[in-house]
Every structure is written in C-alpha cells, then in structure tokens.
Amino acid sequence: MLLRQPSPWPELFRETQREAFHLEVRDTYSVSGESEPLRRFLNGEPPLPEYSERPWTELVRQTVSRGARVTRVRVVTVPHSDYQRWLLSVTASNVAAGEDIRYLPRQSAGEVPTDDWWLFDDEKVGFNLVDEDGRPAGAAITTDAGIAAYCRGVKERLWRLAIPFHEYAAGNAVEPIT
Fold this sequence. Notes:
This protein has helices at residues 9-15, 35-42, 55-65, 82-97, 145-161, 165-170; strands spanning 2-4, 19-24, 69-76, 99-105, 117-120, 124-130, 136-142, 163-164. The protein is of the alpha+beta class and 178 residues long. The protein has an eight-stranded mixed beta sheet, sandwiched between helices. Strand 5 and strand 6 (124-130) form a beta hairpin. The protein is globular, with a radius of gyration of 16 Å. The model has no long low-confidence stretch (mean pLDDT 91).
C-alpha cells in the first residue's frame, strides 16, 4: 500500500477510464472547505452561490466528459446527523456535475466496512485517511487484487440496495436548525 499526501484524488481521477466509485460510511467529516457552508446551513442562512461551482464539481465534470462514471454510495444513520442533513441540502450540485450519488440507510445496509474508500476502474483502491478529529490526512492506495475484489463485491451489493439521490431527498426533506 502506498501512502499519498497531500490529496492524490485529482491525479487518480485523471487516470480513471471507466468508473470512480466512492463508499462513504461516516456520519460526519471535518473538511476545512465545508466549515463555513455547514455553519451557514445550521444557522438557517442561504448557501453561498459559488459553493455549487467548486473544484470538486469541476473535477467531476472533467471526469464524466471523458466518458468515465463518478458514482457514490453514502451509508447514513437515520435520523441524519447535522452534517448529513447539510450534505443532502447541497448534493444536487454534485449530481448536476454528473456524479451519480445514492443513499442507503445504515439499518438496511447489512455489513458495511468501517472505512471510506474509492474504487477506480474496479482495480485500484484509495482509502481516505483521516486524523483523530476526522480531518483528511491523505490516502492509502493499493492495487492488491484481493482488496480490489472485496471492494468490488461491496460496491455491487450496496449499489443494488441504495436509493438514487433525488428519490431519497424527496422522502427526506431537509430544513436547517433555526
């Protein structure tokens, strides 16, 4: 396994030919660029207009414009954490950029890995590393065939169970705390 710091994600996305799949299993994250948008949401303030046009959505657009899919399953605890409620309120911009995001309530998921990871072209796995406070701390990358096969199996099982974002969001209205 190769430890990569800082963020290796843009390079890994540029190398992707068919699909970049993300499994998210945490109910909260501490990403510095999300602090202010999350604060605004929790205070009932409108989102910043430029949040929908950020480096992530541009990376997704570039990736899908080459014909590769960007997909994600978020395994979430219900009731949702404040962070997950905020994510539900802003996920439409990721979907508009071309990402296919699906939600799966944890109680319906069965066994779920404890770590987040990306699976690139079903062959390369990038584990999201976080520090003790949940902040991004780089990635561990592997092409180990056994690990990739395990991740493919998890992806296929959870994808079949997960609910497309727009359908899930329609049944889970999100209101900021006021």
